[in-house]
């Protein structure tokens, strides 16, 4: 890395992360619960009691940087309101620090939190990008992928059984299942799936605010590597077009002129990483919840038609995405609360999904819960997750196949949580398959 590039990276980190980190660390020492949800490792490991504390403090809690809410109705209203946009979107809605960083240091690698990522733009750009790929994630398309997902699950479970009596559920199964499906779906080489997972971890890290300089550099390095691979892969696709999403996007760029190269790289990279990140966490969180609640697992064995609702309850109970943010475009009243223009609201999705005003006995894991699908795990409004149906299908297929094959599956040591705060899941989960379920 050149001195100039290193200096620019330091400026980007300073303006995007260091100032936030310093302020919130001070607030954390003062006992601010929203700051503790960012930087206190014990709180991040089990945030749910602290969401309750935050909710009790008010509908909108100001920590001097952002407003925070763990109320389901308020979070839903903000996510659906046209008066709020994504943070980092059009210049009128981007925080001052981000605009200064862009001018002083230039943009970083193409990642998920900066334009032209679909996560960081509003209409009309968001609408244009989404139209290019939405058909591939339709209900019909996802239904057609189910049988292939079942095949991949069987292949991976066979490989787990062949290893012996123990395995790492995340490394051997939860990560590889969605990574294989999305790679095949997009037209990316499946043999690179572990590399994609490593790069995706860097992208996941970039979603968090207040990163340490070390983590920021690691994240940018992974994102830069993914971007460089994408550009090389696009050249391969131009020479060898196929019937897949990546080919369609390259066509939109090369022949129709509907995408710039940066837009093409951003959309393709986001689809690849987002295509497995949520599902890895869904399967891992689901396995943890079900092994911890054997009565619920027994109920699913007796009534397997409940698996679809069980996935909704897993998404509610331990959401793979714990928070998201929006910025107000004008002075506005939302769900009875006054918000000034330019204020950022962080919706604590994990807290909203356990709001007792919506969910009875919200801390109870109940696969029969009638309104489990009222969760906000996939956001709401125009930014509702494009791959939600795919993730739910993969979660249902993956978890059901796992416990059908290994009905006595049990933890074989403490699982290790990911260090990320926006995304919640596991880095490792040692499991015991038991002698009765392993092939002789």
3D architecture notes:
By secondary structure, the chain is α+β, with helices and mostly antiparallel strands. It has 18 helices and twelve strands. A five-stranded mixed β-sheet has the order 1-2-8-5-3. The protein has a three-stranded antiparallel β-sheet with strand order 4-12-9. A two-stranded antiparallel ribbon has the order 6-7. Strand 1 and strand 2 (67-69) form a beta hairpin. The longest helix has 32 residues, at 261-292.
How would you spell out the order of helices and strands? HHHHEEHEHHHEHHHHHHHHEEEEHHEEEE
Cα-to-Cα separation, first versus last residue: 52 Å
Summed up, the helix count is 18
How do the strands of the widest beta sheet line up side by side? Answer: 1-2-8-5-3
How are the SSEs ordered, and which strands pair?
Elements: H1 3-29, H2 33-39, H3 41-45, H4 48-57, E1 61-62, E2 67-69, H5 72-80, E3 84-86, H6 96-105, H7 125-133, H8 139-163, E4 166-168, H9 169-174, H10 176-186, H11 193-205, H12 213-239, H13 245-254, H14 261-292, H15 294-302, H16 307-317, E5 324-328, E6 332-334, E7 337-339, E8 344-347, H17 349-352, H18 388-405, E9 410-411, E10 416-417, E11 426-428, E12 430-432
Parallel strand pairs: 2-8
Antiparallel strand pairs: 1-2, 3-5, 4-12, 5-8, 6-7, 9-12, 10-11
Helix pairs in contact: 1-2, 1-6, 8-10, 8-18, 10-11, 10-14, 11-12, 11-14, 12-14, 14-18, 16-18
